[in-house]
Design brief:
The chain is mainly α. The chain contains five helices and two strands.
Length: 91
């Protein structure tokens, strides 16, 4: 939908979209991850020297070799004062 496209366009400004190649697909297939897509995300993150994986499903990344957080954990660790202030404002 138009709203979804607008959201993705705005979100894309905040992130870097990483490439996938045959090597990464092979790494994901050979990984210890039960879910192929999770293994692929992990392989891509490792290959690009990502410092963290942010996901709603931390339990799916129990085999991760890099730290995994949900969005709230990441924001609280990265911007602790501003997130706390925003949470207080919302209450």
């Amino acid at each position: 939908s138009t709203d979804t496209r607008k959201f993705i366009s705005q979100f894309k400004v905040l992130v870097t979209v990483l490439s996938i190649d045959d090597k990464l697909i092979d790494l994901a297939l050979a990984s210890d991850f039960d879910d192929f897509e999770d293994g692929l995300q992990h392989a891509i993150a490792l290959n690009n020297h990502s410092e963290i994986i942010i996901t709603r499903n931390r339990k799916d990344f129990k085999n991760s070799k890099i730290p995994v957080m949900n969005a709230n954990e990441y924001l609280n660790n990265t911007y602790p004062r501003s997130v706390s202030s925003q949470n207080e404002t919302l209450r």
